[in-house]
């Protein structure tokens, strides 16, 4: 009897793993490798998870739906001068530049800082639009891969850094449970231990759960929650540095 396999990919976790593993490769694309053999990679995972008579029904790839920018609505004209100064002063370099300024000089400097933040926001929006185009390209080019967008992630305009995403892991865990009727084996590509309760629930329904863990060039597992998932899943697939590099075509 053919085993039905679904793959659940924690998109940000997977992307961070790729960039951590191959940080020394200067040609690595900012988001995801453009020439990666995704169909072959996910089909290979199915063979590792169930070597005898297995079929990949679908790969569900979870990514953020919205980017929340902080400070919020910095371009809004509703902010009075005093409130705007308080908001801008949360960032120490901006606060230092505003110290000692008064009247027009203060207003001009705050306008300059707001323009800096709004420019950063515009750049980030264009980057995120590019990521969506890449996702759509993967869906169109490769077999049975579906991007599922949920939740949000905060982007700090001051530090130009992403913070922790929200609700994406909840969507993956929910689908793992809700879709349990269509698969015999679920493969999770993530190092997030937040999935442990969902995995335990699905196992109680008689499903097999396999975790994917990545190994560094020195043959060590990437640190993180993968170790905890490895303990609760039925077994794990450890992918070597060279194996992943081959499928990513980098």
- Radius of gyration, in angstroms, nearest whole number: 22 Å
Mean pLDDT: 92
Order of the strands making up the biggest sheet: 4-3-2-1-5-6-7
Give the strand tally: 7
Q: Helices and strands, in N-to-C order? A: EHHEHHHEEHEHEHEH
The percentage helix is 40-55%
The CATH topology name of the domain at 3-65 and 128-153 and 164-248 reads Rossmann fold
What class do helices, strands and sheet pairing give? alpha/beta
Strand content: 15-25%
CATH class of the domain at 3-65 and 128-153 and 164-248: Alpha Beta
CATH superfamily of the domain at 3-65 and 128-153 and 164-248: 5'-nuclease
**CATH architecture group name of the domain at 3-65 and 128-153 and 164-248:** 3-Layer(aba) Sandwich
User: Termini separation (Å)?
Assistant: 37 Å
Structure summarized in a few sentences:
The protein is an alpha/beta fold and 250 residues long. Helix content is 45%, strand content 24%.
What do these coordinates show?
The chain has a domain at 3-65 and 128-153 and 164-248: 5'-nuclease (Rossmann fold). The protein is built from nine helices and seven strands. The chain has helices at residues 11-21, 38-49, 81-88, 92-98, 103-141, 168-178, 196-204, 226-232, 241-248; strands at 3-10, 54-70, 145-156, 161-166, 185-189, 208-214, 235-239. The protein has a seven-stranded mixed sheet with strand order 4-3-2-1-5-6-7, with helices on both faces. It is elongated, with a radius of gyration of 22 Å. The model has no long low-confidence stretch (mean pLDDT 92).
